[in-house]
């Protein structure tokens, strides 16, 4: 958004040429904003361009470029609602112009307004304002001078920027360092044992076989000694190899299990904001597939890599001790192979990261369609879902083909270099024998060592592939572990004590991303009072409930319970005093009793039955095949919506909360079932602070006070009868619902579907 040497260099390419704003000589662009809506909220292209002296605009509502010279009293006013940003140009007397755009350009609108104010202040002093620093296209944060990478985004993905992700696994290996040290010692010893047989071939050939060819009898005792050495070395190598493999596999399995547990545990500590931007299938793939891949790497490939390195180093040392010149010729391919590994390593790592992302997309399709199979079949969209899966699968196939192309060139090249190296050794070795510098036994030993050396060299080069796969998986795991919760646990939590239920909300403001949802909410709720939250869809009802539960934290202001800011309380301790009944009841796979006792696992069967009776669920539970021990199915699919809701109410009843949250608690039941639940709720709310987001007015009429929200602000408060008599926002909601939805003689309802289900 800053101007460079050319006046238009900061603008998108599509705006240059004929579409460029008409700038005067010497006039440069200070900031700009892309528009994608017209005043009627239809999609249309447009732009705002700010220079040192004026604001220019091009939109579908007014063809061509219009301009307004900057003057005293002018300002750009921003507001947003329901995903639309309004940009108003006003002066001291009236509004001069209005533009609209989607929330995708909200950050650009804020930067334009900031630069506008800076420019006006500079003009008042007879100068030109310094331009804002260029912004990161991803997070819109200002970039440091002369930098193209965003520090915020770099910190958000520390693994990719700060080094090899696999090295960060050492903190998980620390508890097992004793066994790892033992495994390393056994690896050294077993590798050394495998290098003994080639060394014994030298005296076996020079002292036994070659003298026999020259007419001397075979020394069977000496031959038996060398052969016994070969057998003994093989047995020792086998025992040591089995021991080190078992120990290191034992350690790697536990490192993988600890990593999996840590990732899942950390995932549970993150706020709902994190889950709102993630796909279920992607998170499942990270914790499942990636940790399994890392475990396989640690238990198999890393052990092979360590053995390869030790074998190469030890073999190189033995070769140098036997004949330095022949050893030098043997090691010639090593620098070329190392250069090849360095060349393809980054390509493979980036390729495997793409493979992981595409595999996560396949998992996402499965996670969407399998739980939603009823909807798929109800709308006859089987072919569409198959096509979506095929597209993701083909994309994954294309990415794998690119990786395989790189790997298919690398591996044969390494084999070619080792074969050429072996040929060079043969040539140089024959020349050495012809000049009586070495014996045939020495060359035979060299060839035996070289076969092992090049075999390990080829094996080590192949490990590049699995290493980069494991590194890509570790990066995705540490992306979770590095994430900091937006709802942090206080370092020194304040003791809560017995909760009375007094809630004080002061100037509470909250945004979902860049969209303002709550603006300056002030509300006092007394202990034992029942509050009903009402308002249009998108007014902020469920957001306010989420803030009280501390699923999110307020951006500004505070929420206090019994005079203590909830941000100073232990999160688990605070939430144990809150009972929540959600609009969409969620049951875990298990029995009815296990779901009711989810918030209190130690509950007795008598307590579970008592909670079910209070929720009017006992009768239908007894009609199930196994009563309270009946399985509810995946997400409670074996039960009806009303039955699931009553079990969720029983779940909230069992923990006996001091604060009760009813978020559309009766929206999924019919009228007769609602009447039964309402009787239970009448007993439940007595003596408890209750906040109800209700769909049916029959629930709201029982509230001590109704709070009417509109566009994130409280516009009315009072009892049902008083608000109806007042004829304000609540009255209009009531009348609109009565006219449009209610058949004669039925209970009045209003549009209570809410917006923010995170």
From TrEMBL:
Pfam families: ABC_membrane (PF00664), ABC_tran (PF00005)
Residue ranges occupied by any ABC transporter domain in the UniProt entry: 503-736
Domain of life: Bacteria
Transmembrane segments: 180-200, 220-240, 294-319, 325-344, 410-431, 437-455
InterPro entries reported in the protein's UniProt record: AAA+_ATPase (IPR003593), ABC1_TM_dom (IPR011527), ABC1_TM_sf (IPR036640), ABC_transporter-like_ATP-bd (IPR003439), ABC_transporter-like_CS (IPR017871), P-loop_NTPase (IPR027417), Type_1_exporter (IPR039421)
Lipid bilayer topology: Multi-pass membrane protein
Span list, region Disordered: 736-758
Record-level GO cellular component terms: plasma membrane
Chief localisation class: membrane
Single annotated GO MF: ABC-type oligopeptide transporter activity
Keywords: ATP-binding, Cell membrane, Membrane, Nucleotide-binding, Transmembrane, Transmembrane helix, Transport
Compartments reported by the entry: Cell membrane
PROSITE patterns on file: ABC_TM1F, ABC_TRANSPORTER_1, ABC_TRANSPORTER_2
Domain ABC transmembrane type-1 positions: 181-469
Cell membrane found in the keyword field: yes
Protein name as annotated: ATP-binding cassette subfamily B protein
Lineage, top ranks: Bacteria, Pseudomonadati, Pseudomonadota, Betaproteobacteria, Burkholderiales
């Amino acid at each position: 958004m800053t101007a460079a040497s050319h006046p238009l260099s900061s603008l998108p390419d599509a705006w240059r040429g004929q579409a460029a704003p008409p700038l005067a000589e010497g006039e440069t662009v200070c900031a700009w904003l892309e528009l994608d809506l017209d005043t009627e909220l239809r999609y249309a292209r447009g732009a705002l361009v700010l220079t040192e002296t004026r604001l220019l605009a091009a939109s579908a509502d007014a063809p061509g470029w219009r301009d307004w010279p900057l003057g005293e009293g002018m300002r750009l006013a921003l507001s947003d609602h329901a995903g639309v940003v309004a940009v108003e140009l006003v002066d001291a007397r009236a509004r001069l112009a209005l533009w609209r755009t989607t929330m995708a350009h909200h950050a650009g609108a804020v930067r334009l307004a900031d630069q506008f104010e800076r420019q006006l202040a500079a003009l008042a002093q007879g100068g030109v304002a310094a331009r804002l620093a260029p912004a990161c296209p991803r997070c819109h944060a200002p970039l440091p001078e002369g930098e193209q990478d965003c520090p915020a985004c770099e910190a958000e993905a520390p693994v990719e920027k700060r080094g090899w992700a696999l090295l960060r696994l050492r903190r998980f290996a620390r508890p097992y360092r004793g066994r790892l040290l033992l495994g390393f010692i056994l690896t050294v010893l077993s590798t050394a044992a495998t290098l003994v047989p080639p060394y014994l071939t030298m005296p076996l050939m020079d002292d036994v076989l070659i003298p026999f060819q020259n007419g001397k009898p075979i020394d069977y005792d000496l031959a038996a000694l060398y052969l016994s050495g070969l057998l003994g070395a093989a047995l020792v190598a086998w025992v040591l190899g089995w021991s080190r493999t078992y120990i290191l596999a034992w350690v790697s399995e536990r490192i993988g299990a600890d990593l999996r547990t840590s990732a899942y545990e950390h995932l549970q500590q993150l706020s709902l904001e994190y889950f709102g931007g993630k796909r279920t299938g992607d998170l499942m793939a990270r914790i499942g597939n990636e940790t399994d891949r890392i475990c396989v790497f640690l238990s198999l490939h890393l052990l092979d890599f360590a053995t390869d390195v030790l074998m190469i180093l030890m073999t190189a040392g033995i070769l140098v001790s036997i004949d330095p010149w022949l050893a030098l010729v043997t090691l010639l391919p090593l620098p070329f192979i190392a250069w090849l590994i360095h060349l393809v390593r980054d390509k493979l790592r980036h390729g495997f990261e793409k493979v992981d992302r595409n595999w996560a997309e396949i998992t996402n399709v499965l996670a969407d369609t399998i739980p939603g199979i009823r909807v798929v079949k109800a709308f006859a969209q089987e072919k569409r879902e198959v096509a979506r899966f095929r597209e993701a699968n083909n994309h994954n196939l294309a990415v794998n083909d690119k990786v395989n192309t790189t790997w298919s060139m690398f591996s044969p090249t390494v084999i070619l270099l080792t074969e050429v190296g072996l040929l060079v050794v043969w040539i140089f070795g024959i020349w050495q024998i012809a000049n009586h510098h070495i014996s045939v036994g020495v060359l035979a030993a060299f060839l035996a060592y070289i076969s092992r050396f090049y075999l390990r060299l080829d094996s080590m080069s192949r490990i590049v592939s699995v290493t980069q796969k494991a590194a890509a998986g570790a990066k995705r795991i540490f992306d979770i572990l590095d994430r900091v919760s937006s709802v942090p646990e206080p370092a020194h939590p304040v003791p809560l004590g017995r909760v009375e239920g007094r809630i004080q909300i002061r100037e509470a403001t909250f945004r979902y991303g860049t969209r303002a949802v709550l603006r300056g909410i002030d509300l006092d709720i007394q202990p034992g009072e029942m509050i009903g939250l009402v308002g249009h869809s998108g007014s902020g009802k469920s957001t306010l409930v989420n803030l009280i539960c501390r699923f999110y934290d307020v951006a500004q202001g505070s929420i206090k319970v019994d005079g203590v800011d909830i941000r100073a309380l232990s999160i688990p301790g605070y939430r144990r005093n809150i009972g929540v009944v959600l609009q969409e009841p969620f049951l875990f796979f298990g029995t009815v009793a296990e779901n009711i006792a989810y918030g209190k696992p130690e509950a007795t069967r008598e307590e579970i039955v008592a909670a079910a009776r209070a929720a009017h669920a006992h009768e239908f539970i007894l009609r199930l095949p196994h009563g309270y021990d009946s399985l509810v199915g995946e997400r409670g699919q074996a039960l009806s919506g009303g039955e699931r809701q009553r079990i969720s109410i029983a779940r909230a009843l069992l923990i006996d909360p001091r604060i009760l949250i009813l978020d559309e608690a009766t929206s999924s039941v019919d009228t007769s079932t609602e009447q039964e639940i309402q009787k239970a709720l009448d007993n439940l709310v007595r003596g408890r602070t209750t906040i109800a987001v209700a769909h049916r007015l029959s629930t709201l009429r029982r509230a001590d006070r109704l709070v009417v929200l509109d566009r994130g602000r409280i516009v009315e408060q009072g009892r049902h009868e008083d608000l109806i008599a007042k004829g304000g926002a609540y009255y209009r909601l009531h009348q609109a619902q009565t006219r449009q939805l209610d058949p004669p003689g039925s209970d009045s309802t209003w549009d209570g579907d809410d917006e923010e289900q995170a």
